[in-house]
Amino acid sequence: MTARIRLKQLTGLYAISRLQADDGIPAWADGPGFVSITRTDDELSITCLQDRVPDAVKHDRDWVAFKLQGPFAFDETGIVLSVIKPLSENGLGIFLVSTFDGDHLLVKAADEPAARGFLREAGHTLL
Fold this sequence. Notes:
- This protein is an alpha+beta fold.
- The chain has 2 helices and 8 strands.
């Protein structure tokens, strides 16, 4: 059985930024809206409302964010797959961020209408 998920669209447009792995977390990263900060050996990646990202920072703009309404148990399977599969099968790119309580799906703003349609066709509810 495929999971049926409720997704809530977050307000605003988001950007995904890439800084150097050893950079400090910049003050502009924090603030209202969804914020994700991930550091790896290769980079510091920041997702936040795009109006906060300085032009000089390497970033990709115009993403719309949807929160998968959880929380979901860590051993619950098929949650993410049920959401990304209909988008991927129809050629839409996604960016996904997981948190302790759930997941956030980002799609390009230009793809938002199509993404909404594919998600509804797959049985998901958009709030």
